[in-house]
Structures are given as C-alpha cells and as structure tokens.
Amino acid sequence: MSAQPPDGAPNPDSFASVFDVYEVRRDDGRVLYFGDPRADRQTIEEAVWPAFREQGYEVHLARRTGEAVLVAEPRDANEDRGVPWTNVALFVATLASTLFVGANWYYVDPFSPEVVRALPFMLSVVGVLAVHELGHYAMSRYHDVDASLPYFIPFPSLFGTMGAVIRMRGRIPDRRALFDIGAAGPLAGLVAAVAVSAVGLWLPPVSVPPELAASPNAVQVQFAYPPLLEAVAAVIGEPLSYSDPAKSVNPVVMGGWIGMFVTFLNLIPVGQLDGGHVLRSLVGEHADRIAPLVPTALFALAGYQWFVADAGDTAGIWVVWGVIATLVTFAGGVDPVDDASLDRRRVAVGVLTFVLGALCFMPVPIQIVG
Asked: Which 3 state secondary structure label does DSSP give 266?
C-alpha cells in the first residue's frame, strides 16, 4: 500500500478479508482504495459499508483503468449549506399557483381581493402534499439517510401543482429503512387527506353562478370519487354530490381527493416510486420480475377506456402513466446494502399500504362533459 488513509477514514485491515487493498489515494475530497476483490460486489459492499458509514463516508465499488476500487466520499459533502433557496422559491410559487387556480373553484376573480376565498383550497392541497413528503423526510432522517427538503412543483393545472418530491442522496442501509422511507409518505399523506376530506365535507357547498350554470358553452369537469373518500363521506354523513346542479362540493374536499389520487399514483409498484420501494423491501429482488407487468396493466387499462368504455380523456391519463412506469422500470429501483428480509410487522403494514392505495384508485378519475 503506497499511502495510509487520511485521519478518520477506515483502515484497510478492517475489511481485508473481502477486499485486499494495495494502494490508497486521495482525489478531490474522496478516498480511493485500490485492491483485489475477494468476494462479489454485494458481499464486499455489505462488509465494508458499516465501517465507512460510521466514519462519515458513503462508499461503493467501482472500476478505474481496469482496477477495482472502493470509492469513499464524505457524507457531509452532500449537505445543504445555508438557506435552501430553490426549495423556498418552488414552495412560494406553488402557494401562488394553487391560490390562483383555487380562485376558479370558488368562482372568483384571481386578480381581485376576493382571491383570499381560495386560501382554504390552497392550504388543503399544499398541506396534504407537504405531509406526504415530510413523512419521507422524517424517516430518511431517522435512518440517517441523506435527503433533501421537499421540492414542490407549481403547475397551472386544475389543481395548480404537480406534487412534490424529495431527493435521497445516500445509500439505503437495509430493507427496513427502505420500507420505512417508502411507506411513510403515502401513509402520512393519507392521514392528512382523510382529515382534509372530512373538514371539506363539513364545510358548506359552493354555489355555481347562475349565468355560468345556464350558459350553453359551459364545460363541466366531472370527478369520480375513490372508495376511501366515499367511505369518509359515509362515516360522517355528508354528501359528495347534490341534487341541485347549482351546488358543488366544497373545494377543500378536492385537497383530500388530490392527496388520495397522488397516493395511488405514488404506490404504483415500480422503480423508485414509493410503491417500488415498498415492493422491493417486501419481496427483495423478485420485484424486478413484477415491475414489467405494471406498465402492461396501465396500457391495458388505457386501451379498455378508449375502445370499450368510451372514455378517451381518461385513457390519456393511463397512457402517460404507462410511459412513466416504463421509464421508471428501466431506470431501476433502490438496492439496500443489507438485503435481509423484513419483520412480520412491517410486512403486514406493507400489505395494508397497498390495500389503502387500491382504495384510492379510480378507473375514470376525471371526465370533461361539454
């Protein structure tokens, strides 16, 4: 070995049984251990990872100029410094976009002082999404996995946003961590969605302006309701629709609707979606054989909507998600360092998570009626 590791980096003797190091170099803050592998990649990374993690490094096995090398990078190199201005800017933009779009739900001018009437819609949508992402973030911190704060995505759609994401930058230590991080978002988001839905159902309905209701050129957007939302309405004894066409459910309910629909989409069991994390933690590498079936099912659903159910608008939604699922499947999932099986309690929670996700499914979520 031509050099000793820097202070704080693991001593090669501690993992010589799986990787025989003959040279150590420093490279722009990283530490490179060149050596001869004495086991397969999975075994080597499982053996060396705890020592490097304890010393504050992320490590992976690579090849450079034909040589095997353990690349160790300080974990604090990925830490955010100062105020996360990108996160803040996107969050503020999402507040503005959901408030602007929410004005349409209350039939008020978004450029007038009356736009404040849309604040409940804005808070319900952003709140549900925030709880979902903070569930991931909290579990990432609990398992000491480096993760960013949520990035909200403003978008001038029916809801003013395309959701939010966090970025995980560290290795996942084991299946328990992968499961906890993957399931925490959907479960936390569903709790928030149910609470928001209940509040919205208790609030008074919104009245459609008479001139709009009577207009022959008006376009009506019809929303289906997932079984979970229908169950919430049944439990608290409030309606989701009214016999009077001039009345519509309070827009706060749509915050819950969005949360439930986003939960279903995130629980599609492929790649690095939440459902892919949960499935990978439950069944291990068998998830790679299940994942290709998912895009096929989504394209089949789109074909059914288009050719049989005559729901062309909705078919487009499932085509888009079929394409997304295909791309995510090819991108691959997350492989934890320790691939030991989950305990029975987590397996039961995982099954429950997918059941709750199924209760958020709507074959025809949105239809546009001329």
From this structure: helix
- Report CA torsion sign: 370, 223, 128, 331: negative
Work out the pLDDT band at 366, boundaries 50, 70, 90: confident
Q: What is the dihedral of CA 238, 242, 246, 248, to 10 degrees?
A: 50
Measured in degrees and rounded to the nearest 5, phi and psi for residue 356 equal -65, -40
86-130 pLDDT tens trace: 999 999 999 999 999 999 899 899 999 999 999 999 999 999 999
Q: What is the mean pLDDT of residues 178-190?
A: 96
DSSP letters for 188-235:
HHHHHHHHHHHHHHHSPPEEPPHHHHT-TT--EEEE---HHHHHHHHH
Q: pTM of the full predicted structure?
A: 0.86
As given in the structure block, the two tokens for residue 13 are 């003797």
Count Cα atoms within 13 angstroms, Cβ side, for 84: 15
Amino acid at 147: A
